[in-house]
Amino acid sequence: MSSPARALIADDERLMREQLRARLAEVWPELEIVAEAKNGLEAVELTEAHKPDLVFLDIRMPGMTGVEAASAIAQLPTHDDEGADGWRGCEIVFITAYDQYAIEAFEQGVVDYVLKPAERERLTVTVARIQKRLAQREGSGNGDADDPPPAMQQLLQKLAARMDPGKSPQLRWIQATVGQNIQMIPVEDVLFFISDEKYTRVQTATLEALIRKPIKELIEELDAEVFWQIHRSTLVNTKYIAGVSRDLRGRQLVAMKGHNEKLEVSRSFAGLFKGM
Fold first, then answer.
1. Which of 69, 174, 204, 233 would disulfide-bridge 195, Cβ 3.0–4.6 Å?
2. Tens of pLDDT, residues 114-163
3. What φ, ψ does residue 207 adopt, rounded to 5°?
4. What distances in angstroms separate CA 34 from CA 10, 86, 142, 196, one per listed residue?
């Protein structure tokens, strides 16, 4: 990193925040802790305000959990989305008690983790991984790391479902406005969703409709293995992807079966199609 990395710590237990801060000072003295949050909502708000390089999130917090906060943080605008101050997004490190299903997921490398209480040896491993990721960000000149944000979103959705089975994706129908009428659209028929400030466009092979549900809510209700986020404002149904090409500026464009519109892939999500 050309300048010291900046971090935020979120945990509802003050002693855990203090202990992690002390341990980090030992294994990564150059790291600057820019803020501390007592819950998930504060973590999201402070991340948006301070734009840190990494966020340590307690996986279980009252109200908004760490998993929900991580999903919301992943939706914050970056310089690739809407020119937001050149921020490239942040790395996520979960703080967790021993949960076997969670540890197995974290070991896949999409996000990292620290076990409670934070031990120096394990934290040293985490720090080494994060430093490598941040160096790759710096060297690549964009927000892409080894694992793209969509992979993280899929992991977060699975974690949320395991932590609270009642919150598993349930959306099967879209109630949308088509002209002056309300129509029920099967989710499986949707080619893609595109949002603007007020509405989300629902596109099938035969009709275009509007709903008021934002992309960030749809992500939580749809199957992440079927619907991939390719842009802050766009979700595509992978069953209908015809191919991916590049335009003269090098941007990736997704072509959909049954529709002639090509959808732009933002740089932050380009890792989905690394082979292209």
1. 233
2. 888 888 888 998 899 899 888 887 766 544 444 445 566 667 766 766 66
3. -150, 160
4. 11, 18, 22, 32
Strand order in the sheet with 252-256: 241-246, 252-256, 262-265
SS3 of residue 29 by DSSP: coil
Residues sharing a CB contact under 8 Å with residue 191, sequence separation 6 or more, in sequence order = 203, 204, 205, 236, 237, 240, 256, 257, 258, 259
Shared-domain flag, residues 153 and 204: no
CATH of the domain at 87: 3.40.50.2300
Write down the pTM of the prediction. 0.62
> Domain range holding 126?
6-166
Give the separation between CA 241 and CA 254, rounded to whole angstroms: 7
Q: Are residues 135 and 217 in the same domain?
A: no
